[in-house]
Amino acid sequence: MSYENYPNTDKLLQPEFTRPKNNWRNYLTAALVIALLCSWGYIIWLRSKTQEVIQQKEIINTNVTSQRDVLQKELEDATRLYDMIKTSSANMVHSKDSTINRKDREIADKRKRIQELLSKINASDKDLAEAKGLIASLNNDITGYRAQIETLQGEKLVLTREKNVVIEERDKVKKEFDSAANVIKQKEELIDVATTLHASNFSILGIQETSDGREKTTNRAKKVDKLRISFDIDENRIAQSGTKNIFICITGPDGKPLAAETLGSGRFSTRDGEQKLYTQKIDINYTQGQRQPVSIDWKQHNNFEIGDYKIEVYNNGFKIGEGISNLKKAGFFG
Description:
Strand order of the largest sheet: 2-1-3-8
Order of helices and strands: HHHHEEEEEEEEEE
Strand content: 15-25%
Number of domains: 2
Number of helices: 4
Distance between the termini: 237 Å
Number of strands: 10
Shape: rod-shaped
Radius of gyration: 64 Å
């Protein structure tokens, strides 16, 4: 039996089965790789963006800080200038000037507001812009303040000069017035002295009152009941007619003034300023240019002592006359 090499019809007739390839895995892997790459790319981009934002913020913060420092310096310069102006003008401008006080308050309020804005940690552009505008306004205020101070200083200088002129004129007038017043005073004093009366022709008698009502003179102290003092007021052509006060001062033998308030005694002032006791005061109606007699009686509560009695008469604070009377001891026949 022979065999021939023929193809196998079974194999030829049976279709060939092809095993399917795993393409979806490749797609998934690729997708994952792409996603991973995208994720990394996004992360890298996000990180770069974040870094950029941080850098921008740092730049902004640096700019803000720089701008704040500039504004702070401008504020300090303005404050220094303002304080210098106030210090230099402290002695020239009245501290109670209402206009200056109002301007001081306005400047102080602006300085406070500017400092509040610059002190903010997270100061915004709006805050810095407001601060910048206020600083500009503050500088204008300080310029106006200086001009106002200079104006007031100028006015004060003018007023000072005018005041000095007025003071000089016043002093001149006062000096002239004082000089005139002194002359007038001197003349008045001369006239006052010239109008002072003068007493003369003293008569001092001891008077005894008898039981029948008669009077007789005696120099025996034991018998004297009263002293009769008489004198003349000399003529004076300067003294005006009218009532004149005459003070009679009697000094006893013991050197003490005779005075009793119940009998009309009192005190008066002499031209030397001394307070002097007077025994009696009398008012006379004097006629200018005429001699006028005066007589008074002094009767005391106690007896008259032996010795000299000194009588002084005063007018216008001056002593105008005096006299002495001696009362003796009683004689052998009493």
